[in-house]
Design brief:
globular, about 190 residues, 2 helices, binds coenzyme A, single chain, five-stranded antiparallel sheet, about 30% strand, Thiol Ester Dehydrase, Chain A
């Protein structure tokens, strides 16, 4: 398989004009972050297990920290592609959201988050309870998208995550295009029908 180069030359044309150079590439490890939270009684849902919204906020906060660290400034959640709850969190669980940049585009980043839970006062193995993929967009002071440093995968796992993020992005764009075409067909039928 052809070797991909992840090191765009610093200052190369970013596509944003001469005044916006391509930022230097950064390794995924430079912004990797873990955020933790103890599920207390206030975090329970009506069934007595951990409320999904609490886990979602933890996931978004962890991903936001990674996106801010990687892009070196403000970044906003543009989309949550997938948030899978695998096992319920319980009151008394110490929940860890491990997050890292999987992929970068020109101004957007995919952040992958893996959520693990362990009993807060027991030394038992942690369970994988949820996973999520979020797209963040770096913004300038006017709220407009700004270029992000290309991510440089280091490990075999980083490369796998990069490839899988590209597959998700390709599918997302194809789905959006298919929906737009379908709506355009509907509108054309309304006009002619
Ligand atoms: C996210 C936001 C900045 C994008 O602005 P925009 O003008 O629509 O951006 P563009 O169409 O120029 O796209 C910019 C990038 O975002 C990506 N993007 C935009 N909308 C997206 C979506 N729904 N899903 C995935 N990626 C998206 C584009 O693919 C592009 O990526 P690239 O530069 O890496 O190729 C804007 O929609 C926004 O401010 N949304 C509200 C964010 C918010 O309030 N979040 C919750 C609180 S943090």
């Amino acid at each position: 398989m052809a070797q991909r180069s992840f090191d765009a030359p610093v200052g190369a044309d970013s596509g944003w004009g001469d005044d916006v150079p391509t930022p230097a590439a950064k390794p995924a490890s430079a912004s990797r972050t873990t955020l933790s939270h103890i599920m207390s009684a206030q975090d329970a849902n009506l069934y007595g297990t951990g409320h999904g919204g609490v886990v979602m906020k933890l996931v978004d906060d962890a991903a936001a920290a990674v996106a801010g660290r990687h892009s070196g400034g403000p970044a906003v959640t543009a989309a949550v592609d997938e948030l899978a709850f695998l096992v319920p969190a319980r009151v008394g669980d110490l929940v860890h959201a491990h997050a890292q940049v999987n992929w970068t585009g020109r101004t957007s980043m995919e952040i992958g988050v893996r959520v693990m839970a362990e009993r807060w006062n027991e030394s038992t193995p942690a369970n994988h309870i949820a996973s999520a993929y979020l797209t963040f967009v770096a913004i300038d002071p006017e709220g407009r998208p700004r270029p992000v440093p290309p991510v440089r995968p280091e490990t075999a796992e980083d490369h796998r995550r990069f490839r899988e993020a590209e597959i998700r992005r390709t599918h997302r764009l194809a789905r959006r295009q298919a929906i737009q075409l379908s709506r355009a067909d509907d509108e054309a039928a309304d006009v002619t029908g």
